[in-house]
Amino acid sequence: MPPNPPPLITRPEGLYCPDGDFYVDPLRPVPRALITHGHADHARAGHGAVMATRQTLDIMALRYGADFTQSRQVAEGVCRIGGVEVSFHPAGHVLGSAQVCIAGPGGRVVVTGDYTRTPNAACAPWEPVACDILVTEATFALPVFRHPDPQDEITKLLSSVAAFPDRAHLVGAYALGKAQRVIMLLRAAGYDAPIYIHGALQKLCDYHIAQGIALGDLRPATVARGKKGDFAGAIILAPPSAFAATWAQRFPDPVISFASGWMMVRARARQRGVELPLVISDHVDWPQLTQTITELDPAETWVTHGREDAILRWCEMHQRKARPLRLVGYEDEPE
Prior knowledge:
By secondary structure, the chain is an alpha/beta fold. It has helices at 54-64, 150-163, 178-188, 202-210, 266-271, 286-296, 308-317; strands at residues 9-11, 14-17, 22-24, 32-34, 49-52, 71-74, 79-81, 84-90, 98-104, 107-111, 133-138, 169-172, 195-197, 218-220, 235-238, 255-259, 276-278, 300-306, 322-324. The protein folds into two domains: 9-144 and 283-324, Metallo-beta-lactamase, Chain A (4-Layer Sandwich), CATH 3.60.15; 150-278, Rossmann fold. 21% of the residues lie in helices and 24% in strands. Strands 7-8-9-10-11-18-19 form a seven-stranded mixed β-sheet, covered by helices on one side. Strands 1-2-3-4-5-6 form a six-stranded mixed β-sheet. The longest helix is centred in the middle third of the chain and has 14 residues, at 150-163.
């Protein structure tokens, strides 16, 4: 790596690039922000200017309103900002998600945002990007986290539907990314029946469809359809917060499910009252995280928003330079 200072430093607002005078996924409003994806803990409203993929900009407008920023710029190709070159590369996390590569006198830094190497039909696949410094998430950075094949988890869901035809299956799934991925996994498994969705998922599902993501027959679950028995045998997707409301009481003896990497932790499933946990994550697990570091072979790895200690220890054991960023304000899997 060149002897110059690295292109990124940490500030209270988040990761800052002095040579370009911008932040990446800042934690509070700043004059200029580069945004990796549309989840609320990375994409906040109120920045003076925002650069992101076209889909992320669209998603931010859907979530925050058209005036979420004073100025927006679509990330296309390699763009020069001040003294650095910036490019965006698919992260495989949610629709529009990207890794941000910043190349300057101090070397190449890749800020992964949130990412996974597991194929996701609802967005572009993760792309390896060579770098001197890798800034990686550590959401599931413990050796115990080894996520199963998501299609096998969907098989569990469909087996439960077949076993309990008189019960509705309520699947908790975050509105951006997880809901659409679960729908795509169901369609890939041959499930062509209507899937019912909570009203909070409608706008983002409609946007995915407009972007060419074939979600199939989706119907509203927030409109009463007569007797509770009308939903017997149905699959209903909703944000997890809806399960605590009276909304969930309209369904017949529901099987409560939740699609999340955290469903590997039984205590979390019990706390949420989950009867059918589905371990489906849009983040790298431990094998993928260590594989990424090994394959990209950066001179240094910076670890952020997650469980840092184990991966820092792994880097030490493998003679790899690493350090924690300890940025506060990111959630593990934001709702």
